[in-house]
Amino acid sequence: MIAHLLSAGHTVKAASYDRGYRNLSPEFDVLEIEGLHIASVDNKVSVVETFADNLGRLSDGIRKLGELRGLFHEFEPDCVITDFEPMTAYLANHYYLPLISLDNQHRMRYMSYPCPSSLKADALVTETVIRAMVPRPDVSLVTTFYFGEVSNERTFLFPPILRREVLDAQPSDDGEILVYCTQAFESVLEQLSEFPRERFVVYGFDRSGAEGHLRFEPSSPDGFLADLAAAKAVIATAGFTLMTEAIHLGKPYLAMPMGGQFEQELNAILLADLGYGKNGREMTGESIGDFLYHLPDYKDRLDGYVGEDNHRIEAKLDELLADDCASAREFHRRRS
After folding, report:
1. pLDDT in tens, 88-143
2. Which of 130, 140, 259, 293 has CB 3.0 to 4.6 Å from 155, enough for a Cys bridge?
3. Domain count, the chain
4. Burial (0-12, 13-18, 19+ Cβ within 10 Å), 2
5. DSSP string for residues in 189-217
6. CB-CB contact of 74 with 113 (8 Å)
7. DSSP assignment, residue 117?
8. In which domain, by residue range, is 265 found?
9. Are residues 174 and 217 in the same domain?
10. Same domain, yes or no, for 29 and 95?
11. 243-274 pLDDT, tens per residue?
12. Do 141 and 12 lie in a common domain?
């Protein structure tokens, strides 16, 4: 989206942290800020470690907030676009600037979706957190692979944003199953050992080399995408980006939502509801076996998925920002 805005003639200043900063800073003008970090143990959110990690970053966060305020004063933006980043959202409200949210999280605030009764409380808490993170977006551009009803005229739904490398990838099937965990999830390796006839390529465990029918690979964006495009199926945590890339490439997906993270729970629910894969919330050898047995069914459903590039959401951004952000300013005026 930054590249598109620049190509349309806009001047863009970005602010990001961690992987976002590392990915964007070589190519764009990016201020490094501090953000929320979530720690997990065996695919479950660790409240204690998450709290301790973020507490240790508090002083840096305060300093970075000062730098971000300085950027607002120096740059004097006409409009702010936030990908669920709270400091820019709050500063946009503070300076009475039009605020556009561009993310998948606002599905859970402004879009209807199926939710089991056991997760209703989590859904309510998550909606409250989203409201606290981005309190008053004037326009919400929501990326999603599941299209429910929206609750207001300020919310617009779009297919997931995909990087050019994914759009250009040519999917095939070499018979391997791609396995990915954001942090080492040792119990899943034990479960994979129950399926010696399958071949697995495994990322996220900080090791490399073959161990029986498992091929471990170190972190590599190009290598990972090549293995994803060639995979028979995917077994991975239920993050939005990888899931939507797999769906676009027609790969059945066994989603392992991180315990205590409702967004991942929802991704897995919607995936299963659409028939593109299985919700592996209770991850067992039996659930892996069931997933493998139903691969033909998932592939049939994925054949009906019509992939798109990013042109629709780019066009909406162009509309909102045209004529000195006239449309975005009008949404802001109505919201005020």
Report:
1. 999 999 999 999 999 999 999 999 999 999 999 999 999 999 999 899 999 999 99
2. 140
3. 2
4. middle
5. HHHHTT-TTSEEEEESSS--EEETTEEE-
6. no
7. G
8. 165-303
9. yes
10. yes
11. 999 999 999 999 999 877 899 999 999 999 99
12. yes
